[in-house]
């Protein structure tokens, strides 16, 4: 009997496979198609001949852990103990999975805010716990009244994603005020803050859980070098949590992967000494603005994008088809792949919205926009 009977092939795999079959431009799956920073590839090339090919310590390569601690200090003015509060993971998804598996028990409830990344629910189910899906408002702001009503003595964890995939929204100071009010009533609830797009924000920087004192003793923060440095295939991220939680997370991690790719850790540790993460927002804002300009005369209605490298668009002026069908036809008939937003909801709520990834070179964006503009 399956432990995940309702889990099928992910929509990302489906759309990317179709894009390859029909030779369509793939704006569905969230991976960049432009070159990696030469400074990083030069570091990697040099390291191939050095002694960095064996196991690192379980929690991470010590020089990288020190650099991450510096990064957290400079980005959020937070001091962490890398020995007891930090874990390098095989991508952010492994950090999420490991944290949930370590901290959530059978019978617990975990609040997931929809639309949501599809990797949140499965580890909850594998814990024999209950995922409680709570919809955001139609403009993708949190409905704190609904969230509070969903909390109960069984609630073990609330998962937040900020900046938010797939919508590109960021949480406001008022949101955190409401969040603190709710959590003060439930002191046992843990928070998992998925912040993999933390450095990809535009007009306003996102407010990190790192900067909120009321969260520091109960929050697991998950970050991604793959997202920040355009190296998604390296599958490397990190998780930060207070020591009493990290002890439990490390117990699972050591039997799940033990340690993460050694040369990737060594390369990123040296790259962090020269890269300026504060330039990432400007880089992607230029791509967002260019993609929006290319589509301004199309029949798609583009929604606000405050962060991430995803653009949500309404096709309500084009078709009455459900969003999954529309996306499949977009590939077969027009040669562009996107992701239907309904697949991020437990009830498959269909608002005629799709998600484009604009982390692509200009030629790809121009080619896709030309096809989309002809619809």
Automatic annotation (TrEMBL):
Phylogenetic placement of the source organism: Bacteria, Pseudomonadati, Bacteroidota, Flavobacteriia, Flavobacteriales
PANTHER family: FI04487P
Family named by the database record: Belongs to the class-I pyridoxal-phosphate-dependent aminotransferase family.
Protein name as annotated: Aminotransferase class I/II-fold pyridoxal phosphate-dependent enzyme
Molecular functions per Gene Ontology: kynurenine-oxoglutarate transaminase activity; pyridoxal phosphate binding
Source superkingdom: Bacteria
Pfam family for this entry, one: Aminotran_1_2
Cofactor: pyridoxal 5'-phosphate
InterPro entries cross-referenced by the UniProt entry: Aminotransferase_I/II_large, Kynurenine-oxoglutarate_AT, PyrdxlP-dep_Trfase, PyrdxlP-dep_Trfase_major, PyrdxlP-dep_Trfase_small
Residues of the Aminotransferase class I/classII large domain: 24-372
Gene Ontology cellular-component annotations: cytoplasm
Keywords in alphabetical order: Aminotransferase, Pyridoxal phosphate, Transferase
